[in-house]
Amino acid sequence: MATDAQIAANRANAQLSTGPKTEAGKEAATLNNFRHGLAGAFHILPWEDEEEFATLRLGLRAEYKPHTVTEQILVDRMAQHEWLRQRALHLQNLCFNANGMLDEPGQFALYLRYQTTHERAFHKCLNDLLKLRAERRKEQIGFESQEQKKELHEARVRLANARAAHLELNTDIRSTIEARLPAHEAIPFKEVKTVLKVALEEVFGDRALSKAA
Questions:
Q1: pLDDT of residue 85
Q2: Is residue 177 a contact partner of residue 187, using CB atoms and an 8 Å limit?
Q3: Mean pLDDT in order along the chain per 10 residues (213 residues)
Q4: What DSSP letter does each residue of the chain carry, written as one string?
Q5: How high is the pLDDT of residue 34?
Q6: CA 47 to chain centroid
Q7: Is the dihedral of CA 64, 69, 70, 74 positive or negative?
Q8: What's residue 180's pLDDT?
């Protein structure tokens, strides 16, 4: 059990405790007692401007234009981490007195750590967003490549069918021209042009003779 001397000594030490002395320091300590909001669930503190936060969030949405629910969540988290980073900076400033001297080194160190934490969290969300978009773009390129391969295959099939149809028609023409007629010899396909030329000359020659007569 503590003696009277120990109790008196503890009371004396309590009087020497280094608590916030300046108004700014007291404000910072008060905010800390009522939860500074730099950790845990995100919320706007009473002395902060909700419209200013909304403007920050809308600005980031306009800049990064989220197209999916996941992207929108990442962008909104970026807004929250940036807001908390600014809050940590503000609380750091409250740790200094009017003469620019640091009165609350413990609180200052705490807020500085939170500032760094939210800076890193902001960039992690940004990196996750960019990585997500890169992966989706890669999938899109792969899909487009597959579509191009499919179209190329279909074009090759159409070309092969056209060639087959042309060959079939060419074969039919050859077989028709080279077919042996009664009392006639078969005409080779390569000689058809010469035969047609001679036949036409004979026809026009006979017409010329008929007109002269």
A1: 96
A2: yes
A3: 49 42 54 68 92 97 95 97 96 90 91 96 96 89 69 77 74 61 59 68 68 63
A4: ---HHHHHHHHHHHHT-----SHHHHHHHHHHHT--SSSSS----TTS-HHHHHHHHHHHHHHH---SHHHHHHHHHHHHHHHHHHHHHHHHHTTB-TTS-BS-HHHHHHHHHHHHHHHHHHHHHHHHHHHHHHHHHHHHHHHHHHHHHHHHHHHHHHHHHHHHHHHHHHHHHHHHHTSPPTT-PPPPGGGHHHHHHHHHHHHHHHHHHHHH-
A5: 46
A6: 36
A7: positive
A8: 57
Is residue 66 included in any domain, yes or no? Answer: yes
Taking the alpha carbons at both ends of the chain, their separation in whole angstroms is 157
Q: CA 125 → CA 35, 40, 66, 212, distances in Å?
A: 25, 17, 13, 100
Does residue 132 fall inside a structural domain?
Answer: yes
| Number of domains within the chain | 1
Domain-embedded: residue 107: yes
Tell me if 1 is assigned to some domain: no
Query: What pLDDT shows up at residue 7?
Result: 43
Instruction: Find all residues with CB under 8 Å of 12, minimum gap 6, and list them.
Output: none
Per-residue confidence (pLDDT) for residue 137, from 0 to 100: 87
> What residues make up the domain containing 131?
21-151
